[in-house]
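ok trying this again, last paste got cut off
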Amino acid sequence: MYTKEFEIRWSDIDANRHLANTAYINFMSHTRMGFLMDNGFGQQEMARNNIGPVVFYEHIYYFKEVFAGKPVKVSLQLKGLSEDGMYFEFVHNFYDYKGRNFASCEMMGAWIDLKERKLTKLPEELFQNLNGLQHTEDFKVLTKEDTRKFGKKPQDIDPSEL
């Protein structure tokens, strides 16, 4: 399982003196980028392939508070991947210094062609690198329909209401 360890900094704490929501997002992002950089998705490789990752959603589940003073670990596993690698779903788990799971997150995203500004499949080598990440027990092959499973769509308002 891929993991990163973090020291909780003063700036990671909220008004309730526990780990702030933004810190969870930052720790997960750092963990994902660490895995990607360690597995062929560095800046040069992504620039050569003209791709970048985009996040569709992050659903965080909080189980217990965690406070500054002891390090925490954030894991990364692959929950889903489309056949062409365009769509991916990750699971992050947060563990305290005793290995107790205090939060979990399901995150879905895709790869975007940075010139065309459209979603794109992964080159085969990068697909294999991503697919090499440890899979969750409930791993599945993703389709476009999986990205729409919550039925959320934009709802514009009249500009006069702004």
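PB: full thing came through this time. The chain is about 20% helix and 35% strand.
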